[in-house]
Each structure stands twice: as C-alpha cells, then as structure tokens.
Amino acid sequence: MLLEIESLVARYGAVEALHGISLGVGEGEIVSLLGANGAGKSTTLKAISRVIPPASGTIRFAGRSLDRLDPEDVVALGVAHVPEGRRIFPGLSVIDNLRLGATARRASRAETQRDVDEVLTIFPKLRGLAPKLGWTLSGGEQQMLAIARGLMARPKLLLLDEPSLGLAPLVVKDVMETIARIARDGTTVLLVEQNAHLALQIASRAYVLETGRVALSGAASELLASEEMRRAYLGSAVRVAAPAPAT
Question: Most Cβ neighbours (<10 Å): which of 21, 35, 127, 141?
Fold first, then answer.
C-alpha cells in the first residue's frame, strides 16, 4: 500500500473526531472517503497532511512514518492536499498560483515552467486564463486551478477534499473526468466527496465513515450495488451504473 493508516485517532480539543480508523490506498488507485457532514472525512485528510497532529495511531506513506513531520515535509515526500473551498490566492494571477504550487520542491525556474506547461495540458482552459486574477474565475475554474496547483508539487498521492462542492452538474462531470485522467496518468488519489454516486463511478474502492468510524468499505462496484449503501447515501431511486475506475 502507498498509504497505510492504522488505528488513527484525531481530536479537536476535547472532541474526538476520529475513533481509531484504519484504511489503505494502493499505488495508482482512486479511493473515495464517503459519509455525511461531520463524519471525519476532512479530518482524515488533515491528519495525513499533518495540518492537525493525530492523537494516536500510525500513518505511513511509501513505507515511511509521517509522525513528527511538518506539513511542508509531507509535501516534499510526495503528498499534496487540495482542501475544501479551493483556497487559491484571489489577488494573484492563475500563473502565479500555479508557480506557488512548486515552492515546496524548491524547483528551478526552468523546472517550474516545464511543470506549468504540463498541468496546462491537463487543464487547457486555464491556459487562456493565465494572466487573470484568482478572484475573477468562476467556481469551476477555481477548482481546476486548485487541483492544478496541487499537481505542481508532483505528488505521488493527491488528497482532494470535496472538489464538486458548489459546482454546476456539467462542471462536476468535467472535474470528475479530470480526476480519473490524473489517476490514469499515474497519480494516486484519495478523494473526499459528498456526491457518493459520482465518486463511486470513478473510484476503485471506497470507505464510508460514520461519526469518526469506518462503517462500510469495499470495491466501488460492490458499494454501488449495496442496498444499505443505496438507502443511506445514494437514494433509493438511484440507477446503479458500472464504475469506471482508474487502471
């Protein structure tokens, strides 16, 4: 496994948000973390990237413990976190937002430019927006920029937190197709997503969190077909379609 989490406990002050969860993400996979608001999905990503320090348990990435590392050290190892809400710099241009994504690698100017050119082939719409300030972009454009900036770190593992939040259905479809492409191109993805049906269509496996615990896990195709999953998260009227996982 590229990412291994064992018995992870995380707290916000006296409030325990994760109660000993365990999960794994294999190299090249898209794995989805699903569940209701407050289930602990975002907290899991924050613990992996060391935005919050775990209270106990272990997190290993590529065989190395992430204990006692600072967030910038985790990025340098190959983990990029695209947080909920996009968090782009609104007063900076698209191109400068992208360049900032390479700072943790201490890349040269030439290397940074090569990486900018590469991510703009994945997100061609951003090329025409390069000089525009972040605040002028639409929600979908900002989300694409946030993901592209994450890729500028050349991650082995990309943590995506609610990439479809607040976006129009057609834009969501584009975002999901881009995530699937990123995985096909070799970047492993751990995806937190409220839209369980769409997430399961592009994921190979998924974990469902309930109040800080893993309630369900399995292959995406199995969860899509699960009556319990459909009642709780997909809606009884949903039409089950075969997922298209990354290969």
Answer: 35
Would you say residue 246 lies in a domain?
no
pLDDT averaged per 10 residues in sequence order, the chain, 247 residues? 96 94 96 92 96 94 93 92 87 93 79 89 90 91 92 94 86 89 94 90 94 93 86 52 46
Separation of alpha carbons 37 and 193, rounded Å: 10
Q: Is 142 helix (H, G, I), strand (E, B) or coil?
A: helix
Start-to-end CA span in the chain (Å): 16
* CB contact at 8 A, 93 and 131: yes
Tokens of 14: 């006296």
pLDDT at 232: 72
The tokens for 123 are 């997100």
Question: How far out from the chain centre does Cα 205 lie?
Answer: 14
Q: Which domain holds residue 190?
A: 3-234
| pTM as predicted | 0.88
In a domain, 230, yes or no: yes
Count of the separate structural domains present in the chain: 1
Tokens 């899509």 locate to 224
- 8-state DSSP, 240: P
DSSP state of 241: -
Torsion angle, alpha carbons of 144, 155, 161, 198, to 10: 70
CATH number at residue 9: 3.40.50.300
- Specify if 239 maps to a domain: no
- Rounded Cα distance between 34 and 214, Å, is 10
The pair of structure tokens assigned to 12 is: 């916000």
Domain presence at residue 247: no
Structure token pair of residue 103: 């700072």
At 234 the pLDDT is: 66
Q: What count of Cα atoms within 13 Å lies in the side-chain half-sphere of residue 60?
A: 12
